[in-house]
Automatic annotation (TrEMBL):
UniProt KW keywords: Lyase, Periplasm, Signal
Keyword Signal listed: yes
UniProt protein name: Alginate lyase family protein
Molecular function GO terms recorded: lyase activity
Source domain of life: Bacteria
Matching Gene3D superfamilies: 2.70.98.70, Chondroitin AC/alginate lyase (1.50.10.100)
Ranges where the Heparin-sulfate lyase N-terminal domain occurs: 168-289
Statement: the UniProt record of this protein carries the keyword Signal: yes
Domain Heparinase II/III-like C-terminal, chain residue ranges per copy: 310-524
Annotated localization: Periplasm
C-alpha cells in the first residue's frame, strides 16, 4: 500500500525537485565526510535603508521567565534558549522561534531586541535556525529591525552575511512553492542591505519566475491556502516597501513587478474575505497566524495600493454574496500538482456565513504534527462535501502528501449557479456531480452519484460552535436557517472539534446525511436579522 502511495505522490513531482532532493542529500553527506562547514561570519559592509512602518507582530514573547507563545503553545526557558528544541511542540513551533518575528512586537525595546540577536549569534550549536526557510524569514526580520532602529553593528552584519551565504547555496528547489519564494524575498532584502549585485541577480530571477508561476491570473496564490496567501502578500508588501523607499542599484529593478503582483493579491484577498474579516479556512489555513486582511489592506494602502473589484476564477474558488449571506465554494484542483503539502481532500467543499457570522464552516487546521488529528483534518469527512463509502476523494497521507487525487471539471456556470463533477472515486467506477443554485433567500445543493449508483454515500455539514440545532422529522432547524432534504436519506448528528487556530479546538455539532444515488439539500434563510456589516 505504501509503495502505491509513494508512486502516485512522486508521479506528480517535477524532475527539478527530485534532482535537488538527491543533490542536497549528497552535498550534506559530502560535507559530513570532509568535515567542512560554512563560515560562521563573513566581514561585510552594510548600508542604511529607509522603510515605512510595516505591520507589527503579534505578541509572542513575554519577558517573565523567557516565555514564548507560538501556535497557542507556551514554553518557559529557565536557562539558555534551546533554538533547536523540536521535541516540545514540533518543528513548526521551533521554526516560529527562529523567525524572530517577535522583534516587531510593539512593546519590545531596541535594547531587548538587540540582546536577543546577540544571544542568537553567540549560540554555538545552531541547527534548525540554519535551514534555508528560517534563515529567509529571520533575515528579513533582522534587517527590518536594524533599519527601524538605525543599528549598524559589524558583528551582527558578519553573521547575517554568513547566513545569506548558506541560503544562496541551498535555495529550496527541492520543495519549490512558497519556500522558494520566501528565499527570493529574503535575498532581495540582503541585496539592498549589503548592496550585493550577486544577491540582487538571484533574487530578481527567482521573483520573475516564481511570481509569474505562483500568483494565478485571478490573484490567488497557487497553493490555495488563504492563510499562506496572507503570508506571501505580507512579504510581497514588505519587499515593495523596500524597493519603493530605497534607490535602485545594479542592472535590475523589480519595483513594477512587485507592485503588479501585490495588487492582484490584494484584490483576490479582499474578494474572498468574509464581511467580519475571517478568511475561509480551506486547505491548511488558520485564523490569527498570518497578518489579517484588514492589516494587509491598510499596509497596502500606505504603499499606494487599494483593492479593486475582481472576479475569482483560475484558483477554482468561487464567492457568492447576497444581502443575507456569503457562500464560499471550492471547485479547485489539488494545486500545484507537484506541491500538495497544504492540500486537503475537500473537492466541492463550501463555507457559509449568514449576516456576517459563521454558520457552516470548514474544520480548519490545528497541527502539522504527524498524528491522527492531522490525517483527520485533511480527510474528506472533515469538509462539507460528499464521501462515497469510506473512501477519500484524494489520497491524503503522511503530513504533507497526496497520492491519487480528484480532478474536478466545471460543467456549467452562471452568476447564480455552478455545476461541476470530479473523478476522485474513479477506482469505484463513480463520478460525483454537485450543483449549487444561489437565490436571495435560499441555497440549493444537488448531489448526484453517477456510475455505481447503489454505493452508499454521505455528505457532511459542520456547524459553527454554539449554533443551536434541532432535528425534527429529518429537518434541521437553527436560529439562522432551516435545512431540508429530498430523496431517500437519513440524518445523524455528531460532535466534532473545530480548529479555528493552531492547537485550539472548540466542540461543535456535525450533521451527517446518508443517501444513495442523489440528494437535494435546501438551505432557507430566516429574515428577522439586521443587515450585514459593510466590507473593509
Amino acid at each position: 500500500m505504501k509503495t502505491k502511495l509513494y508512486f502516485y505522490t512522486i508521479l506528480h513531482l517535477r524532475p527539478k525537485q527530485i534532482f535537488y532532493q538527491l543533490y542536497y542529500q549528497v552535498k550534506r553527506l559530502g560535507r559530513k565526510i570532509l568535515r567542512w562547514q560554512y563560515p560562521k561570519t563573513i566581514e561585510v559592509k552594510s548600508f542604511s535603508l529607509h522603510l515605512q512602518a510595516s505591520i507589527p507582530a503579534k505578541k509572542t514573547y513575554f519577558p517573565t521567565k523567557n516565555r514564548f507563545v507560538f501556535l497557542n503553545q507556551s514554553k518557559y526557558f529557565k536557562e539558555a534558549i534551546d533554538w533547536n528544541d523540536e521535541k516540545s511542540f514540533g518543528k513548526l513551533w521551533t521554526y516560529q522561534l527562529n523567525y524572530f518575528d517577535f522583534l516587531h512586537q510593539k512593546d519590545l525595546s531596541k535594547e531587548e531586541g538587540l540582546a536577543w540577536i546577540n544571544t542568537f549569534i553567540n549560540t554555538s550549536n545552531l541547527s534548525t535556525g540554519l535551514e534555508p526557510y528560517p534563515i529567509s524569514l529571520r533575515g528579513i526580520n533582522w534587517i527590518k529591525f536594524l533599519t527601524y532602529h538605525q543599528i549598524q553593528e559589524p558583528e551582527i552584519d558578519a553573521v547575517l552575511r554568513a547566513h545569506y551565504c548558506i541560503l544562496s547555496k541551498n535555495l529550496e528547489y527541492h520543495i519549490l512553492g512558497n519556500h522558494l519564494l520566501e528565499n527570493a524575498f529574503s535575498l532581495l532584502f540582503a541585496a539592498y542591505y549589503f548592496r550585493d549585485k550577486h544577491f540582487l541577480k538571484i533574487a530578481t530571477k527567482l521573483l520573475e519566475e516564481e511570481l509569474k508561476e505562483q500568483i494565478l491570473t485571478d490573484g490567488g496564490h497557487f497553493e490555495l491556502s488563504p492563510m499562506y496567501h496572507q503570508i506571501v502578500l505580507f512579504r510581497l508588501l514588505d519587499c515593495l516597501n523596500l524597493v519603493k523607499n530605497n534607490p535602485d542599484f545594479g542592472e535590475y529593478s523589480v519595483k513594477e513587478l512587485l507592485k503588479t503582483y501585490a495588487q492582484k493579491m490584494v484584490d483576490f484577498l479582499n474578494e474572498i474575505t468574509f464581511e467580519n474579516g475571517d478568511i475561509p479556512l480551506v486547505n491548511d489555513s488558520a485564523q490569527n497566524f498570518a497578518p489579517n486582511t484588514a492589516e494587509l489592506l491598510a499596509y497596502a494602502k500606505s504603499l499606494g495600493l487599494s483593492p479593486k473589484p475582481t472576479k475569482i476564477k483560475e484558483s477554482g474558488y468561487r464567492k457568492f454574496q447576497k444581502a443575507t449571506y456569503e457562500l464560499f465554494v471550492d471547485v479547485a484542483e489539488i494545486s500545484p500538482k507537484y506541491l500538495s503539502a497544504h492540500a486537503h481532500s475537500d473537492t466541492f467543499n463550501f463555507i457559509l456565513y449568514i449576516r456576517g457570522k459563521p454558520f457552516i464552516v470548514d474544520t480548519g487546521t490545528s497541527t502539522y504534527q504527524f498524528a491522527e488529528r492531522r490525517q483527520q483534518e485533511r480527510s474528506t469527512s472533515a469538509h462539507n462535501t460528499v464521501q462515497v463509502g469510506d473512501f477519500e476523494q484524494s489520497e491524503i497521507w503522511s503530513i504533507f502528501r497526496v497520492a491519487r487525487r480528484a480532478k474536478p471539471k466545471i460543467l456549467s456556470e452562471s452568476e447564480n449557479h455552478i455545476s461541476a463533477s470530479h473523478n476522485g472515486y474513479r477506482r469505484l467506477g463513480i463520478v460525483h456531480q454537485r450543483d449549487f443554485w444561489i437565490e436571495e433567500q435560499q441555497i440549493t445543493i444537488h448531489d448526484t452519484i453517477l456510475g455505481n449508483e447503489n454505493f452508499p454515500a454521505k455528505t457532511f455539514l459542520h456547524f459553527y460552535p454554539n449554533i443551536e440545532i434541532k432535528l425534527t422529522e429529518n429537518i434541521i432547524s437553527t436560529d439562522f436557517a432551516t435545512i431540508t432534504f429530498s430523496k431517500n436519506f437519513e440524518i445523524t448528528l455528531a460532535d466534532y472539534l473545530l480548529a479555528e487556530e493552531f492547537n485550539l479546538l472548540k466542540p461543535a455539532k456535525l450533521a451527517i446525511i446518508h443517501f444513495q444515488n442523489e440528494l437535494t439539500t435546501t438551505i432557507k434563510f430566516h429574515e428577522a436579522y439586521e443587515n450585514p456589516r459593510p466590507k473593509f
